[in-house]
Amino acid sequence: MEAEDKIVLVATHAGEDPERATLPFVMANAALVMDTKAVVALQGSGVWLAKKGYAEHVFAAGLPPLKDLMKSFLDAGGRLLVCIPCIKERKIAEADLIEGSETTAAANLLSEILSAKASLTY
């Protein structure tokens, strides 16, 4: 399998660590500006970022507001994958996820990573 001009960023943090929750979206937006496909995958507590209204309250010093970065990312064609087992564990219904997010499980995420030129985890 030949790697695509794509990066996958795995976000495992939410409001408990605003900087580590925000940085994947900074990097993903930069990738999109560079004409590189970008996928952000939310796992663990990172799935809270996809819950409607949650990102509006996450701010990291020195970085743009997370809600703005997420909107820019999705508007520019970025893909936001949300771990199904992780939202089930946290009792987050799929109907409560922001528009533009896609639920996923391990095999699909691994396919995204294996087809990308790079992946990062935050």
Q: Which structural class fits the helix and strand makeup?
A: alpha/beta
Oligomeric state of this protein: single chain
CATH topology: Hypothetical Protein Ychn, Chain: A
Helix content: 25-40%
Q: What's the CATH C level?
A: Alpha Beta
Low-confidence stretches: none
Q: Main beta sheet: strand number and arrangement?
A: 5 strands, parallel
| Helix-strand pattern | EHEHEHEHE
Mean of all residue-level pLDDT scores: 97
How many domains make up the coordinates? 1
Q: Count the helices. How many?
A: 4
- CATH architectural name: 3-Layer(aba) Sandwich
First-residue to last-residue Cα separation: 26 Å
CATH superfamily: DsrEFH-like
β content, as a range? 15-25%
Task: Explain this structure.
- The chain is of the alpha/beta class and 122 residues long.
- The chain has 4 helices and 5 strands; from the N terminus they run E-H-E-H-E-H-E-H-E.
- It has one domain: Hypothetical Protein Ychn, Chain: A (3-Layer(aba) Sandwich), CATH 3.40.1260.10.
- Helix content is 34%, strand content 24%.
- Helix 1 packs parallel to helix 2.
- The chain is globular and about 40 Å long.
- The mean pLDDT is 97.
